Amino acid sequence: MRMKQFISKRNIGKAGNLVFVGLLLLLLFSPDAKSWVLKQLISVGLFRAEIKKEALNGKVQAANVSFDFRTENGDVSSVAGLKGKVVFINFWATWCPPCRAEMPSLNDLYNQLKDDKRFVFLFINEDEDTAKAKSYLQNNHYTMPLLTKAGTVPAEIYSGTLPTTVVLDKEGKVVLKHEGIADYNTTTFINQLKGLLE
Predict the structure, then answer these.
(1) Residue 180: half-sphere exposure toward Cβ, Cα within 13 Å
(2) Chain mean position to CA 17
(3) How does pLDDT run across 30-80, given as a tens digit for each residue?
(4) Phi-psi region for residue 84, left (φ > 0), alpha (ψ -120 to 50) or beta?
(5) DSSP string covering the chain, please?
(6) Dist. CA 167–CA 182, nearest whole Å
(7) Rounded distance, CA 27 to CA 124, Å?
Protein backbone atom coordinates (compact mmCIF):
# COMPACT_ATOMS: atom_id res chain seq x y z
CA MET A 1 0.00 0.00 0.00
CA ARG A 2 2.82 2.42 0.82
CA MET A 3 4.40 1.80 -2.58
CA LYS A 4 1.14 2.72 -4.30
CA GLN A 5 0.99 5.94 -2.31
CA PHE A 6 4.59 6.75 -3.19
CA ILE A 7 4.01 6.12 -6.90
CA SER A 8 0.91 8.26 -7.01
CA LYS A 9 0.31 10.68 -9.87
CA ARG A 10 1.02 13.55 -7.53
CA ASN A 11 4.48 12.28 -6.60
CA ILE A 12 5.31 11.44 -10.20
CA GLY A 13 4.33 14.99 -11.13
CA LYS A 14 6.58 16.39 -8.39
CA ALA A 15 9.48 14.23 -9.54
CA GLY A 16 8.95 15.39 -13.12
CA ASN A 17 8.97 19.00 -11.97
CA LEU A 18 12.22 18.46 -10.05
CA VAL A 19 13.86 16.86 -13.08
CA PHE A 20 12.68 19.75 -15.28
CA VAL A 21 13.98 22.37 -12.84
CA GLY A 22 17.27 20.48 -12.56
CA LEU A 23 17.70 20.42 -16.33
CA LEU A 24 16.79 24.08 -16.56
CA LEU A 25 19.40 24.98 -13.93
CA LEU A 26 21.97 22.87 -15.74
CA LEU A 27 21.28 24.77 -18.97
CA LEU A 28 21.43 28.12 -17.18
CA PHE A 29 24.73 27.54 -15.41
CA SER A 30 26.69 25.07 -17.53
CA PRO A 31 28.31 26.40 -20.71
CA ASP A 32 28.96 22.80 -21.80
CA ALA A 33 25.26 21.93 -21.48
CA LYS A 34 24.19 25.05 -23.41
CA SER A 35 26.75 24.31 -26.09
CA TRP A 36 25.59 20.70 -26.40
CA VAL A 37 21.94 21.73 -26.82
CA LEU A 38 22.86 24.31 -29.46
CA LYS A 39 24.99 21.76 -31.35
CA GLN A 40 21.97 19.46 -31.48
CA LEU A 41 19.82 22.27 -32.86
CA ILE A 42 22.44 23.00 -35.53
CA SER A 43 22.62 19.32 -36.46
CA VAL A 44 18.88 19.16 -37.19
CA GLY A 45 19.05 22.08 -39.60
CA LEU A 46 18.25 25.12 -37.49
CA PHE A 47 20.45 28.23 -37.69
CA ARG A 48 21.46 27.91 -41.36
CA ALA A 49 23.69 30.66 -42.70
CA GLU A 50 22.83 32.34 -45.98
CA ILE A 51 24.22 35.22 -47.99
CA LYS A 52 21.36 37.38 -49.25
CA LYS A 53 20.73 37.54 -53.02
CA GLU A 54 21.40 41.30 -53.14
CA ALA A 55 24.90 40.68 -51.81
CA LEU A 56 25.50 37.84 -54.26
CA ASN A 57 24.51 40.20 -57.09
CA GLY A 58 27.00 42.85 -55.94
CA LYS A 59 24.37 45.22 -54.53
CA VAL A 60 26.06 46.04 -51.23
CA GLN A 61 27.40 49.27 -49.83
CA ALA A 62 31.08 49.72 -49.06
CA ALA A 63 31.86 49.99 -45.36
CA ASN A 64 34.89 50.61 -43.20
CA VAL A 65 36.08 47.05 -42.74
CA SER A 66 39.80 47.45 -42.22
CA PHE A 67 41.33 46.29 -38.96
CA ASP A 68 44.54 44.62 -37.86
CA PHE A 69 44.84 41.12 -36.45
CA ARG A 70 47.64 39.20 -34.75
CA THR A 71 48.75 35.62 -35.40
CA GLU A 72 49.93 33.20 -32.71
CA ASN A 73 53.50 34.13 -33.65
CA GLY A 74 52.78 37.80 -32.96
CA ASP A 75 52.81 38.88 -36.61
CA VAL A 76 50.33 41.67 -37.37
CA SER A 77 48.41 41.86 -40.66
CA SER A 78 45.55 43.97 -41.95
CA VAL A 79 42.25 42.99 -43.50
CA ALA A 80 42.84 45.80 -46.01
CA GLY A 81 45.67 43.73 -47.50
CA LEU A 82 43.30 40.87 -48.33
CA LYS A 83 41.42 42.52 -51.20
CA GLY A 84 41.02 40.18 -54.14
CA LYS A 85 40.13 37.30 -51.81
CA VAL A 86 36.89 36.24 -50.17
CA VAL A 87 37.40 36.78 -46.43
CA PHE A 88 35.48 34.82 -43.78
CA ILE A 89 35.79 36.42 -40.32
CA ASN A 90 34.47 34.88 -37.10
CA PHE A 91 34.71 36.47 -33.64
CA TRP A 92 34.47 33.88 -30.86
CA ALA A 93 35.45 32.99 -27.27
CA THR A 94 35.77 29.76 -25.30
CA TRP A 95 33.38 30.99 -22.60
CA CYS A 96 30.61 31.61 -25.19
CA PRO A 97 28.28 28.56 -25.53
CA PRO A 98 26.95 29.56 -28.99
CA CYS A 99 30.54 30.02 -30.18
CA ARG A 100 31.47 26.58 -28.93
CA ALA A 101 28.37 25.06 -30.52
CA GLU A 102 29.19 26.38 -34.00
CA MET A 103 32.90 25.45 -33.83
CA PRO A 104 32.51 21.99 -35.43
CA SER A 105 30.70 23.59 -38.39
CA LEU A 106 33.33 26.32 -38.71
CA ASN A 107 36.20 23.85 -38.49
CA ASP A 108 34.63 21.64 -41.18
CA LEU A 109 34.12 24.66 -43.46
CA TYR A 110 37.70 25.78 -42.88
CA ASN A 111 39.08 22.30 -43.64
CA GLN A 112 37.09 22.12 -46.89
CA LEU A 113 38.28 25.47 -48.24
CA LYS A 114 41.62 26.19 -46.54
CA ASP A 115 43.71 24.98 -49.50
CA ASP A 116 41.93 27.32 -51.93
CA LYS A 117 44.09 30.45 -51.69
CA ARG A 118 41.22 32.60 -52.97
CA PHE A 119 39.68 32.30 -49.49
CA VAL A 120 41.04 33.66 -46.22
CA PHE A 121 39.70 32.57 -42.83
CA LEU A 122 40.14 34.81 -39.79
CA PHE A 123 39.03 33.28 -36.50
CA ILE A 124 39.43 36.16 -34.04
CA ASN A 125 39.47 35.00 -30.43
CA GLU A 126 38.09 37.29 -27.72
CA ASP A 127 39.37 35.40 -24.65
CA GLU A 128 41.53 37.34 -22.19
CA ASP A 129 43.90 34.36 -22.10
CA THR A 130 44.87 33.10 -25.55
CA ALA A 131 46.52 30.04 -23.97
CA LYS A 132 43.05 28.92 -22.90
CA ALA A 133 41.78 29.37 -26.47
CA LYS A 134 44.77 27.49 -27.90
CA SER A 135 44.17 24.63 -25.46
CA TYR A 136 40.46 24.56 -26.37
CA LEU A 137 41.25 24.28 -30.08
CA GLN A 138 43.84 21.54 -29.49
CA ASN A 139 41.66 19.52 -27.10
CA ASN A 140 38.84 19.49 -29.66
CA HIS A 141 41.16 18.77 -32.61
CA TYR A 142 40.18 21.99 -34.37
CA THR A 143 42.69 23.01 -37.03
CA MET A 144 41.61 26.61 -37.58
CA PRO A 145 44.22 29.32 -36.89
CA LEU A 146 44.09 31.24 -33.61
CA LEU A 147 44.10 35.00 -34.19
CA THR A 148 43.46 38.03 -31.98
CA LYS A 149 42.60 41.67 -32.63
CA ALA A 150 45.55 44.03 -32.88
CA GLY A 151 43.61 47.23 -32.35
CA THR A 152 40.09 48.51 -32.76
CA VAL A 153 37.62 46.78 -35.05
CA PRO A 154 35.07 49.00 -36.86
CA ALA A 155 31.50 48.71 -35.56
CA GLU A 156 30.35 47.85 -39.09
CA ILE A 157 32.20 44.57 -38.59
CA TYR A 158 31.99 43.81 -34.88
CA SER A 159 29.97 45.42 -32.11
CA GLY A 160 30.88 42.99 -29.32
CA THR A 161 28.21 40.32 -29.84
CA LEU A 162 29.57 36.78 -29.81
CA PRO A 163 29.64 34.95 -32.06
CA THR A 164 29.76 37.37 -34.97
CA THR A 165 30.57 36.23 -38.49
CA VAL A 166 31.34 38.52 -41.40
CA VAL A 167 32.06 37.66 -45.04
CA LEU A 168 33.81 40.13 -47.33
CA ASP A 169 33.72 39.81 -51.09
CA LYS A 170 36.82 40.23 -53.29
CA GLU A 171 36.34 44.01 -53.29
CA GLY A 172 36.30 44.11 -49.49
CA LYS A 173 32.55 44.76 -49.21
CA VAL A 174 30.50 43.18 -46.43
CA VAL A 175 28.18 40.59 -47.99
CA LEU A 176 27.25 38.92 -44.71
CA LYS A 177 27.21 40.06 -41.10
CA HIS A 178 25.58 37.58 -38.77
CA GLU A 179 25.43 38.01 -35.00
CA GLY A 180 24.65 34.75 -33.24
CA ILE A 181 24.95 31.07 -33.96
CA ALA A 182 24.75 29.56 -37.45
CA ASP A 183 25.71 26.49 -39.42
CA TYR A 184 28.21 27.57 -42.07
CA ASN A 185 29.11 24.09 -43.30
CA THR A 186 26.19 23.58 -45.67
CA THR A 187 26.26 22.98 -49.40
CA THR A 188 24.19 26.11 -50.00
CA PHE A 189 26.50 28.38 -48.00
CA ILE A 190 29.67 26.89 -49.50
CA ASN A 191 28.26 27.40 -53.01
CA GLN A 192 27.40 30.99 -52.10
CA LEU A 193 30.98 31.56 -50.91
CA LYS A 194 32.33 30.07 -54.14
CA GLY A 195 29.92 32.27 -56.09
CA LEU A 196 31.67 35.32 -54.64
CA LEU A 197 34.83 34.32 -56.51
CA GLU A 198 33.22 34.99 -59.91
Answers:
(1) 6
(2) 34
(3) 667 666 666 666 666 666 677 776 655 555 566 678 999 999 999 999 999
(4) left
(5) -HHHHHTSHHHHHHHHHHHHHHHHHHHHH-HHHHHHHHHHHHHTT-SB----HHHHTT---------EEE-TT--EEEGGGGTTSEEEEEEE-TT-HHHHHHHHHHHHHHHHHTT-TTEEEEEEE--S-HHHHHHHHHHTT--SPPBEESS---TTT--S-SSEEEEE-TTS-EEEEEES--B--SHHHHHHHHHTT-
(6) 13
(7) 26
93-143 tens-digit pLDDT: 999 999 999 999 999 999 999 999 999 999 999 999 999 999 999 999 999
